[in-house]
Amino acid sequence: MLPEITSAPLTLALVAIGAYLLGSIPFGVVITRAMGLGDVRKIGSGNIGATNVLRTGNKGAAAATLLLDAGKGGVAVLIARAIAGADAAQLAALASFLGHLFPVWLGFKGGKGVATFLGTMLALAWPVGLACCATWAAAFALLRISSASALIATASAAAWLWWLGPQTMILLALVLAALVWFRHAANIRRLMAGTEPRVGKR
Asked: Is the confidence at residue 202, as pLDDT, over 70?
């Protein structure tokens, strides 16, 4: 199911461009450099997200990266909804998410999108966003594996939308979740092999 398209094509085009550029801001890189922690792309997994920023040993930098990566998706959605409507909001969610995964500023080599996924869900339908966050927290408490928790939480979004609504967001949730899983291909291979590291253990 899709939302009714009510916005003008030019409006949707501008929303998509603006949301993509906002999503492209690589906060993990910006924060680690600003705090003198080096280039996060040369640390750990090389990912620009909060989990890899945490490998610098700076919890504040990781928390800031998490909040800002989630926030840029949420802000893009809220602005699009305010100036246009539900159709533009969903487009902004997709565009900002793609911006994070494929940022123009970093040669289209970005993060895995988990925080931005959660931020867009919270802005689009906060009960569903909270349910996804709770799913992540429950999975992490049980498994202590960040990637597995992310995969479970993003996969749960469509089910939460089916139950809590709006069901017009289900296709978007499935697309975003599929992209998250695609970006976690290496993690999935390690999970299947039993070699994916647990947080707090070397």
From this structure: no
The answer to whether the beta carbons of residues 10 and 84 sit under 8 Å apart is: no
Residues in the chain: 202
Kindly give, in sequence order, each residue whose CB lies less than 8 Å from that of residue 50, ignoring residues fewer than 6 positions away. 28, 62, 63, 65, 66, 69, 115
pLDDT tens figures, 99-109: 999 999 999 99
CB atoms under 10 Å from CB of 166, counted, come to: 14
Round to whole Å and give the CA distance between 50 and 48: 7
Grouping H, G, I as helix, E, B as strand and the rest as coil, residue 187 is: helix
Could you tell me if residue 47 is left (phi over 0), alpha (psi between -120 and 50 degrees) or otherwise beta?
Answer: beta
**What is the pLDDT averaged over residues 117-121?**
98
SS3 content of the chain, % helix, strand, coil (to 5): 75, 0, 25
Phi, psi at residue 2, to the nearest 5°? -125, 155
Amino acid identity of 62?
A: A
Compute the distance between CA of residue 185 and CA of residue 68 in angstroms, rounded to an integer: 24
Q: Tell me how far apart the alpha carbons of residues 12 and 140 are, in angstroms, rounded to a whole number.
A: 37
The model's pLDDT over 48-74, given as tens digits with 9 standing for 90+, comes to 999 899 989 899 999 999 999 999 999
Q: Residue 2 carries which side chain, given as an amino acid letter? A: L
Tell me how far apart the alpha carbons of residues 16 and 27 are, in angstroms, rounded to a whole number.
20
Answer whether 73's CB lies under 8 Å from 117's CB: yes
* This model's pTM is above 0.85: yes
